[in-house]
Amino acid sequence: MKNTSKIALALILLTTTIVSPHALSQDKKRNVIILNINGLQYEEIFKTPTPNLDRLNITKAYTGGIYGTHSEQKLITNPSEVSILTGVWANKHLIKDNRKNISSGRFPSILNRIKTQKNNSKVAAIVNQPSVIINNLRADLEKADTIEYGLTDDEVINHGLDLIKQRYDMIYLSTNSVYQAGRKFCFGDDYSQSITKADQQIGDIRQAIAQSGDDWLFIVTTDHGLDSKKACISNGGHQTIEEKTIFIATNKPMNEEFSDRTTEAASTDFNHIYSFPAQTSIAPTVYRYLGITINLSWYLDGSSLLGNHGVRKLMTRLNRNFIQWAPIEGDVDIYRDNVYLDTVDGKKGLWKMPVRPLLVYDYSFDNKNSPVGIRLYPTPEEKSTINIKSAINYNNGKIYLFRTDNKYIRWSLGHGKVDSGYPKPINDKTWRGLNRYKNDIVASFNTDKDKSYIFLRNGTYLRFDTNEGRVDKGYPLEVNEQSWPGLKNYANKIVAALHWSSKTVYFFLNNATYLKYDLDSNRVENGYPLKINEQNWPGLAKYAAGISGALKYDSNRAYIFFGDKYVEYNSSSNHVEGALVEVSIGWPGAMKP
């Protein structure tokens, strides 16, 4: 009954606001106010009269990321509140506890983005507890117009009411009395009284925005739940359904991500909690309401609760080779690090990765210009797997494959097998001068002049004398406009080098693009980088995200490595021959421990 009354009364309120004479007297400006009531337990709302909250649409939601994945985060205040404000989980914003750490600049808060995206906008954060504002988001909020902290809850609300009159674009309020009542007394009369007071404050805000003449989106939420079985005292942030359960309430009609409890979520943990919206959906909802386009490169973890929600319930499957979502209409375009990879039918609700990434990458799944992000990591098994990280063809019948276990093998072209006694460790006996750099090797190739070049992950390179068997003196050097013209801006993105012909080297980059380097003119050719697609590298595009090494085998064949797998590329017909092959099968002995 209570849910029904909330929806009905919300419609009445919306109608009243629309026909208000004051509202019609001026152009409608869209503004947003978020009230975070720390410690307000979703289930306790229905045990206490809350006439003002009843007038909002409300849904159960969840915090804490996805249990058992890299997005899982502690169910404590700072990580949760930063997730409200950034739209990403702690594996991205980097606030994993309540200590004085600075959040990642790659994932700004909604206050920061609004200030950046909307000219002349005014944003504010008014809070009781200062930790998130003065510690975690201190750098992020430098451009905010108003920051107030250490206030009583009444002062927080009163300051917020003043800013409504000043027509601020975005106001974030955070109160703490409900949480403190829960900590001291758990659920009971004192806790109920604190909820009653919070509901009155909700009423004050509702009245202020109704009288303002502007078109306000009002969102009420909480940071995380309380567990009565533990006397409402945090258990150190470990995941329980009580502490994982939050709510999102709003004065506007929302989409089906808000209202439709789908059973299509990949995880059924915590009594299907993931069938409800995520805490990270608040930020994209704010952007959508204010008309701010959500960029692919923002990698927000939540789906918007307004308008098109895009991909819903985006998660990794247990075997980690699949990404799953709730089936939707339309195509889903898939990007890695902002580079297009694939398009799949949204109704399938599933994408199989052609190659597992060997590094940490951010993916975007975009349906109808509503991208949702997910960060993928190598599994522990993949981290321990021996992979090929670089290769050199000496053009004397010998090929060298460098491996991630810091060993290498020598392959005999004449015999088509690994030479006896290999693998061997990379050290100053086998590769003089290379030992101290062996962990940082990312790419290599041999010239026709008895010199090999070995590129390192920090943007420097080595020159190796193949006759002397040692690194030349004076190296490593920086990749810059003097040493490798045109390559400087990409030096930290190189994942493989392919010496294609006497004058051409292709550099593959970590964002599925490539460069063409002319050894005669000694510079990157104009027009690069280009995408690795079916026009430029037929058959290679679907694997491009996982390239780890490359070499030209002979005049007709090149091999592109993807960790412990590879494809053969026919340089005469210019396309991939066959499918992915295990290195251990195609190169017998190359992966021997």
From TrEMBL:
This is Metalloenzyme domain-containing protein. Keywords: Signal. Residues 1-25 form the signal peptide. InterPro entries: Alkaline_phosphatase_core_sf, Hemopexin-like_dom_sf, Hemopexin-like_repeat, Phosphodiest/P_Trfase. The lineage of its organism: Bacteria, Pseudomonadati, Pseudomonadota, Gammaproteobacteria, Vibrionales. SMART domains: HX. It comes from Vibrio mediterranei.
